[in-house]
Amino acid sequence: MKFRIIIILFFFASSLHAQKYTISGYVKDAGSGEVLIGATVVDKNEPGVGQATNVYGFYSFELPKGEYTLKASYVGFANKEIKVNLKENISLNFNLEEQASSLEEVVVSAKRSDENVSSVKMSTEKLQIERIKSMPALFGEVDVVKSLQLLPGVSTAGEGTSGMFVRGGSSDQNLILLDEATVYNASHLLGFFSVFNPDAVKNVEIYKGGIPAKYGGRVSSILDIQMREGNNQKFAVSGGLGTISSRLTAEVPIVKDQSSLLLSGRRTYADVFLAFAQDENIRNNTLYFYDFNTKFNYRFSDKDKIFVSGYFGRDNLGFQDLFGFDWGNATFSTRWNHLFNDKLFLNTTLLYSNFDYGFDVNSAGSGFNWNSGLQEYNLKLDFDYFLNNNNTLFFGANAIYHVFAPAEIASKDSNIQDFNLQNDFAVETALYVSNQQEVNDKLSLEYGVRYSSFAKVGPDSVSIYQEGQRKMPENEIRTDVYQSGDVVKYYGGFEPRIGVRYLVNSKTSLKASYNRMRQYLQVATNATAGFPTDRWIPADYHIKPVIGDQVALGYFRNINENKWEVSVEGYYKWLQNVVDFLPGEDVLLNDRIETAVADGIAWSYGAEFMLRKNIGKTTGWLSYTLSRTQRQIEGVASGEPYLARYDKPHDIALVLSHKFSEQISFSGNWVYASGAAVTFPEGRYIMNGQNIPYYDDSKRNTSRMPDFHRMDLGLTYKFRDVNRYSHEITVSFYNVYNRKNPFSIEFRQVNNNDATFNESEDGPVTSTRPAAVKTSLFGIIPSITYNFSFN
């Protein structure tokens, strides 16, 4: 008995001696009041003891009783130190002043200087919005997604387009989030620009692998974009006048230090120039897009804050009164941040996403209207629990209600019947938990699991086919009818995630990761660039969800006081239940989608090399990706493995910026990529006097487009500030050496004197065989942009 009392007293005394107190709070930009994501707060004498802020600028960690000097730091801001006498739990906020960059030390990273080595994260890239804005771009229109295409493992869909393929995944396998709301089509002008106005964007992060358990729903990547909150200190206006569009952003402090409103708009004016055309047919055409971002936030107390944000964008194309085409996105996010105590943080989010498109066709008093779209209603609960200095727990849940409206066609001819495809409904849910653990000075882990489920629900009608026979109308044996709310099909499963970092020394680390993802929605399309007419189809009675697994290994090293970063990553990804078209099938108007597609497996593997310089007059990176992407689907290419359309073995990007002085800076990009895999015709046949190319599906994607390469250059002159007014002018040149990169190759009969024949790559031909005629979109394109700000 005495022995037990001694043991209890010993542990009690030890706990008193080891008792720790919690320091927590927010790190903010003193100039605007916006929180800083990824800022670090550490003990100045023990830099290894501390914490980085989460996406809402909150941090929390423990220290024993005593006196400390705490240091908050964030790239591009002056460090701030505060002395504390710690004898109880305290709340401590830091307001950091922006640091004027000297010519000798220009920082272009939005992360801590050694994060490349010290963080357990791998296959993850952050891009600072100022870096994105400095890059030369098509028509001078700065583009977030095009900037991501310059990173290793991310390839472009084609010349001038904003679609992207990540580590061998198709474009629909990327989850694109704007303030946590899903953006289903992120393109303007049929893919030439993305929907993200850089003036409204605060943070851009892409996960190519090692994806945290809080994310799900796609098997290739997560693109997480957060909007700016707006200045809660003073009124500010910024904007720009460009070659084809203009932007204007206003930041309004509703209550200083407590509430602000951001309003940001952008519109093209190509349609304005059309009005001056001499050809009346051109003057009557329509061509423009616009987008509008808004965000409101209000801090009720140090423990409660709400955010309300929205995005609204639309494209409109029209050819006289004969044809009209418009599409657009709308997202709405309402978030409530609540701090239960100095360790437990909750973000509750209610989300709405809508994507729709429509055609209007008129022909000799006839024609039709076509409308299609989808909606998503999403509720999320995300908890951050700062257990102790070595463990941070993340857990939560979300539920999504999907509505799919594939096609609703209204005829303008009373003799032709209207046509509607059956709407689809589904409920998607998930639970997750993960932990970031510092095992010791060398070893760090991030591990967790996600359980996701998907229920296709009624009303619905399902065709049942003969067992062992191809799903065709003639093999249908019955139709099962489901009422509203009935479960048509249920899918679900666990998605484990783990990441490991081993610190070899303060400059070098080795990392490994594994993640499983489930994707319950797929796009059925023959295109690669993510066009608005793509049809999203949910997993259902016949179509299974895609299951993706990926492993990655990496070597990371920083050189010369973190001025240079070197990394090498290798990955292998394999997918199940990937769908592709059966030969000769179409899905746009197919009410039995299962008859037009087949499923199978896909796999991709590769190596990514990156050399990046973050500090100095000259900054930028050189990246090279070596990869291979293949599929094998029964009924496609004779059941043999074939290359994916977006397989590009070699991809190189060089991105540079140089600051000559405080006023003058230069930027340049050079990219090279292997040509996309394509199917060229094996021959031709004549029908009704027309030459029709013949394609052999057993040779799907065995040919290639010509290799792609291009150089862009830009020069910026920053005028001297006048009071609170800043302005600059940027001149850029897209495709400086006028490379005629192929957009498409068409096979058709030409005569030797045909003007288009000169574009052929096949040399002289006669009218007895087809010529390969290359179409290029862009030669050299100069542009000029004037940017300004007032605060």
TrEMBL record:
Keyword Heme: no
PROSITE patterns xrefs: TONB_DEPENDENT_REC_3
Domain TonB-dependent receptor plug: 141-218
Main location: membrane
Record-level GO cellular component terms: cell outer membrane
Compartments where found: Cell outer membrane
Superkingdom per UniProt: Bacteria
Stretch forming the signal peptide: 1-18
Single GO BP term: siderophore transmembrane transport
Family listed: Belongs to the TonB-dependent receptor family.
The protein's name: TonB-dependent receptor plug
Organism encoding this protein: Marivirga tractuosa (strain ATCC 23168 / DSM 4126 / NBRC 15989 / NCIMB 1408 / VKM B-1430 / H-43)
